[in-house]
Amino acid sequence: MTVAVVFETHATTVDNERGAATGWLPGELSGAGREQAAELGRRRLGDGIDAVFTSDLARAVQTTELAFAGRLPVLQDWRLRECDYGDWNGAGRDVVLADRLVHLDLPYPGGESWRQATARVAGLLADLPTRWSGRRVLVVGHVATRYGLEVALRGRSLEQLLSTEFGWQPGWEYEVG
């Protein structure tokens, strides 16, 4: 049996609005982000979601809490975190993401590489069928989370993903198993 996985990004943060790359810093939802999180809850109400897996970073946890307010089981998992930009966590997006391909395999100073970040996501996916086979789960995460899903479940090239701008949409659907 398979596990149906729906992926959603965390809502907009204060850092997003000011052009910072938060990385492994907690982050905080902006006013617009709080509205987006509430809309996520409305959009996914009645969608057959059995549980929510979320990054343990504050901005993802806050998105999940505002969206689902105790209506679904929520499991926090560090493997769903954004790429760790190390010494560059919180720096300007223009600096951190200027040439992501440089950090495909080379970790950011004091952090990790994009390949390491996406490998974490693959570890979570390997665990899902043990408990959630035949179920539908929602994953709330970051850009690195989506890249990990695309690489592991759709065979996409990480190089290609890093070479294109991330485009938001209201959810992505995947199957594990």
TrEMBL record:
InterPro entries from the UniProt entry: His_Pase_superF_clade-1 (IPR013078), His_PPase_superfam (IPR029033), Phosphogly_mut1 (IPR005952)
Signal peptide feature range: none
Enzyme class, first EC level, given as a word: isomerase
SUPFAM superfamilies registered for this protein in UniProt: Phosphoglycerate mutase-like
Catalytic activity, EC: 5.4.2.11
Pfam families according to UniProt: His_Phos_1
Family according to the record: Belongs to the phosphoglycerate mutase family. BPG-dependent PGAM subfamily.
Protein name: phosphoglycerate mutase (2,3-diphosphoglycerate-dependent)
